[in-house]
Amino acid sequence: MVADEILLELLHAELVNYVCSSECKESAGQLNKHCNLSTLEYFGFSTGYKLIERFTKDWPRLTTELDTIKFICTDFWSSIYKKSIDNLRTNHQGVYVLHDQAFRFLAKISNGTQYLDSAPLYIAFTSGLLRGALANLGINSIVTAEVQPMPACKFHIQVLRNQIT
Amino acid sequence: MAVCVAIIGKENAPKFIRCTDRDQELDFHYKVHSSLDIIEEKLLAASHPKATEPREQFLGMLYATEEHKIYGYVTNTKMKIIIVIDANHQALRDNEIRAMFRKLHGAYADAVCNPFYIPGDQVTSKKFTETVLSLLVKS
């Protein structure tokens, strides 16, 4: 792998480490699955919110919700994770399921069940990223993530329609 | 060159407005405000499923008065940029206006990416102000 592609992974792993060790002082040193994920999620949110302003700069206007989600799945995703989402499902009523077969942040820790407990730590940032990106594009949503057998991962996006302005 | 540049946020609240003549600022506030309705109209027309127009961020000229021409631009994040041009000034081509908008959008994206900027706040970035001032007519 080219060196600059791995930098993001290293930075992200360090971010997870930092948040965990600063929040769970009593169990410092080891990743604790009871760590507060909301800090990581918030980091993701503000990153996504700011990033999307730049990403969509030279893009034709996205008008429909589905267009926006498709943009997130392909261009946004591949510029961060070097691959696009493998499968997108929707019930056309505001629920979208993004399925990534080999999620980049999990790929390195999924050779067995050893790190299964800490998997949520590694997807919290990305759920925040999605939520932030969508929020700035005018879609308020709840994003939850689900780890399939690692390194596969599913992100559920539930759009909150009544709050759309 | 422009006589007034305005940044309007998602909820149509002004985030930044700057014009060449301070005494006319209120007048420009009115003009920018009334052009928001036209932007809304244009967006609504474009979001119609059968709309054939290319969905560009640049909306073209919104309207022209005797003194001014007003141009609009909407980003994907529903942020609006409005430029007011002096109608008596030499005619500017569409491409030049487009370039101005692109420059402003780039500067805005930079300002937003500042980690200390809180989304939804007024834009106070020095660099952004400099970019805007460079586009304004020197009088």
UniProtKB/TrEMBL annotation, chain A:
Matching InterPro entries, A to Z?
NO_sig/Golgi_transp_ligand-bd, TRAPP_component, TRAPPC6/Trs33
Q: Where in the cell is it found?
A: Golgi apparatus, cis-Golgi network
Instruction: Spell out the coiled coil positions from the record.
Output: none
**Major location, coarse class?**
Golgi
State the family it belongs to. Answer: Belongs to the TRAPP small subunits family. BET3 subfamily.
* Matching PANTHER family: GEO08327P1, TRAFFICKING PROTEIN PARTICLE COMPLEX SUBUNIT 6B
Question: What protein is this chain from?
Answer: Trafficking protein particle complex subunit
Annotated organism of origin: Nesidiocoris tenuis
From TrEMBL, chain B:
Q: Which UniProt keywords apply?
A: ER-Golgi transport, Transport
Q: Which Pfam families match?
A: Sedlin_N
SUPFAM superfamilies per the record?
Answer: SNARE-like
Q: Does the keyword Transport apply?
A: yes
Its primary localisation, in coarse terms, equals: cytoplasm
What does the UniProt entry say about where the protein is found? Cytoplasm, Perinuclear region
Recorded family membership: Belongs to the TRAPP small subunits family. Sedlin subfamily.
What name goes with this protein?
Trafficking protein particle complex subunit 2-like protein
